[in-house]
Amino acid sequence: MEERIKRFELVSDMYQFLHDLPDGVGRREMAFRWLLNYARIADEKLMLTVVDAVTGTIKPVTQVGASPSAREAFRGTFVAHIEAARQTQAPVIVSRIQDSDNALLREWARLENIRTLWTFPLIVRGTVTGTLSVGYADERALTDFAAQYWRRVSESLALFVAIDDRGKQYRLHQGRLEATLGLTGSGVLGLWPTGDIAFHNERFLELFHLDPDQVVGHYTKLLAHLRNQLVDPDAVERTMDEVSRLALEPVEVVAELKGLVPRFIRMRMRPMGGQAGRMQGWLAIFDDYTDERDTTTRHQAFLSLVAHEFRTPLTVISGVVEWLLSEGIADPAVAEQLQVISRESTRLTRLIREVWMNAHVDEPTWQGRETKVSLLDLIRAEFNQRQLMAPDRHMVYDGPEQVEIVANPEVVNAIVAVLVSNALRFSPSHSAIDVAIREDADMVELQVADRGPGVAEEVVEDLFVRMPDPRRRSAVGGIGIGLWLSHQFLKKMGGRIEYQPRDGGGAVFTVWFPRQSLKTRVRRLSPE
Q1: Cβ–Cβ < 8 Å for 431, 450
Q2: What would the pLDDT profile of 485-521 be if each residue is shown by its tens digit?
Q3: pLDDT on residue 170
Q4: Distance CA 1, CA 127 (A)
Q5: Are 347 and 312 in the same domain?
Q6: Could you tell me the end-to-end alpha-carbon distance of the chain, in angstroms, rounded to an integer?
Q7: Which domain range does residue 325 map to?
Q8: Based on the structure, what is the number of domains in the chain?
Q9: Which end of the chain lies in a sparser environment, N or C, as judged by fewer CB atoms within 10 Å?
């Protein structure tokens, strides 16, 4: 998964670099040097040259790892191994280059400490426009893996040469996008703001078994070709329609493809910004998600099983301890130990609830267990349970006495538990927890405020992050993902959660729950 995300970021970053590169002298060299720096995997010395199509003489463009001044000696000269690469359109390997018959080349190799030189042609529409030379300080053979890697780099560089030579701004912009396609193992699709397909690569065709002439025009035509392959084509169309209208941040979706062995394709899509804040289109990266999904499903099933198996004995332990405490214990030492057992049981119950949420956050199955939930009853039950460990705190409620939403009770209970437990944990002794509920026709707003120290400014940005920066935030109970999980579930439900500091000190967390279930809201919006 990390490799997939890295590939996506590379393609996006490369496009953004080229888009933001200013016009003027040195623009082309800056672009080539950026790509050579990325392509470099060890201590190779990389030299890029343009070859004159008529005379065969060379013009050095840029280099990485080699001396900028030394390259100028070759400007306008004729070098045998570069001419061989131009004529054969194949890599040329020069071993023991320091023994070359060419005095200029021999002196250059000695100064740069190069013994082996691989030269790859840059081919644009069947013509060699330049070469990429890869130099090493030792003698080495060109392996199949190395040849494939540097050939792909040369192909990308060739695209840059073609872009630079065209000179037209529209073609330049199009070429910037196309140049990125050769540097990713993923399927790539680009869309203009109108929804028309701007470009695609071969991997995209392979993933969906498409012909190039099927990937033209508006994206709705492409979806028509894909309908017979998709298990739920209507859901994919709805997602694309929503993205095309509202996409302001990266979107990730998974589509299932039909077959004896079902395949799952994951799409990560984000809008590409232009000048003056105008969007220039969308960039989508596609990967075969089948194996990763199988691993994730097994992992989530295991977590769910563990949470379920632990929950039952913990419920029994907590119930027995609460009963003993309510009966009254004469021995203070025993009573104190029972309080410890109760506190730690409650803490462990919260951990298990978070494990369950983590196991189901990416699955739609939790939506199938939606029913009417009395929000206020859940809040009071959670507070009463937590108050056993903090009897000097009390709750002040402001709102209606009967508030119902349609949702998964366990999900809502988990979100409420996170808010209430955090408020109690960070509140000082003998203080109140303020709970308020407001409602309208579509949403129910729940606000939980405490009188604690509040959230430090440098920590606010990490509140709803799965793995917060440990240098800025220390976990005080729990495993530090309760707020992140609440944020994820609420987003999937169509709600949201926000934080703001409380006037006079403390923290205020506000949650918006949709009144109706997701299925009901979808049916209401659908013409059927």
Answers
A1: yes
A2: 888 888 888 899 999 999 888 999 999 999 876 555 4
A3: 45
A4: 39
A5: yes
A6: 38
A7: 291-360
A8: 4
A9: C
